[in-house]
Design a protein that fits this description.
The chain is α+β, with helices and mostly antiparallel strands and 308 residues long. The protein folds into 3 domains: 2-64, RNA-binding S4 domain (Structural Genomics Hypothetical 15.5 Kd Protein In mrcA-pckA Intergenic Region, Chain A); 68-160, Pseudouridine synthase; 165-299, Pseudouridine synthase (2-Layer Sandwich), CATH 3.30.2350.10. Helices cover 18% and strands 34% of the residues. It has 6 helices and 16 strands. The chain has helices at residues 16-24, 29-35, 110-120, 149-160, 235-242, 291-299, and strands at 2-7, 14-15, 36-41, 44-45, 51-52, 57-62, 81-84, 88-93, 140-146, 165-173, 180-190, 193-200, 206-218, 221-228, 267-275, 282-286. The strands form 3 sheets. Strands 7, 8, 9, 10, 11, 12, 13, 14, 15 and 16 form a 10-stranded mixed beta sheet that branches. A 4-stranded antiparallel beta sheet has the order 1-6-3-4. A two-stranded antiparallel sheet has the order 2-5. The longest helix has 12 residues, at 149-160. The termini are far apart.
């Protein structure tokens, strides 16, 4: 059993589970829910949803992680490596692979695969398998990890400072009213469905900035180049829906599609521009357009695939 106690240091009232996840960065909300045995706030029993404020005293009893539920176990999983040196590894993550172990996906993740690769090479893996950003399970494409703690922090600092440039490609239903544009707003969890996110009023949730450009149109569908300026959960998927052009195959924010009923999420992290440890200039890494994109583009008469 693990005991965590402390005094809340937050401006304004906030849910305890959100405070632990976003302010303390100790556990995700799902991890807290799974491990929490008992919680007291100011000496009284409380639920994770309890609102806490600055000065509140809390004590949380947590179940042991049991070897992090295999999150720390290396696995021999092949990786599609785009670039690798002594400091970093850049990969093309396949659709369907979870980045970090979590409930329902304790093995077969990118983190397990990286730990297996590091172990095979005699390397001591940094925390979180060196991973510094994430992609949704159903999003494919470029992702980078550090092979040392110093390299991991060097990369992480660029993501925190928003100096990286991330470009995605998507096939969406219909087309935006303009050929290019920018969405600068706020995203928060949908109060009607906690698994979804939705545009919110300023100050509610987190600021989210995306840019789009129409690359090609055909048969009531469009290929979009998407720029991610902030990295919020489901950001591009929500913003495409807000444009009136949900991403084809999106099981959460999409629409039923009669022409491509079996399409999976048509969102791919195409390019990452970032400075590598020891380098003065920025490097650019691109993941090839996946076969699922080529097949739908071909059916729409877009061959070769439009240049992004």
């Amino acid at each position: 059993m693990e005991r965590v106690e402390g005094t809340v240091q937050a401006k304004g009232a906030v849910r305890f589970d959100k405070y632990v996840s976003e302010e303390m960065r100790l556990l995700t909300r799902s991890q807290l829910k799974a491990r929490l045995v008992a919680l007291s706030v100011n000496g009284k029993a409380a639920k994770p949803s309890r609102l806490v404020s600055e000065g509140d005293r809390f004590v949380a009893e947590l179940r042991d992680e049991e070897d992090r539920s295999s999150a720390s176990l290396p696995e021999a999983i092949p990786l599609s490596v785009l670039y690798e040196d002594e400091y970093v590894i850049v990969m093309d993550k396949p659709q369907g692979m979870v980045v970090h172990p979590a409930h329902g996906n304790w093995s077969g993740t990118l983190a397990n695969a990286l730990l297996g690769r590091f172990a095979a090479g005699g390397l001591a893996a940094p925390s979180r398998a060196g991973i510094v950003h994430r992609l949704d399970k159903d999003t494919s494409g470029v992702i980078i990890a550090g092979k040392t703690a110093a390299a991991q922090e060097f990369l992480s600092a660029q993501f925190r400072g928003r100096t990286t440039v991330k470009t995605y490609v998507a096939i969406v239903r219909r087309a935006p009213k303009a050929d290019s544009g920018r969405i600068d707003g706020w995203l928060a969890r949908d109060p009607k469905d906690r698994k979804r996110f939705a545009p919110s009023e300023e100050g509610a949730g987190k600021r989210a900035i995306s840019e789009w450009r129409v690359v090609a149109k055909a048969g009531g569908y469009s290929v979009l180049a998407l720029g991610l300026r902030t990295g919020r959960t489901h950001q591009l998927r929500v913003h495409c829906k807000a444009l009136g052009c949900p991403i084809l195959g999106d099981p959460i924010y999409g629409e039923k599609d009669g022409r491509f009923p079996d399409a999976t999420l048509m969102l791919h992290a195409l390019e990452l521009r970032i400075r590598l440890p020891g380098a003065e200039a920025e490097s650019s890494f691109r993941a090839p357009i996946p076969g699922r994109f080529l097949a739908i583009a071909s059916a729409l008469g877009m061959e070769p695939f439009p240049s992004v």
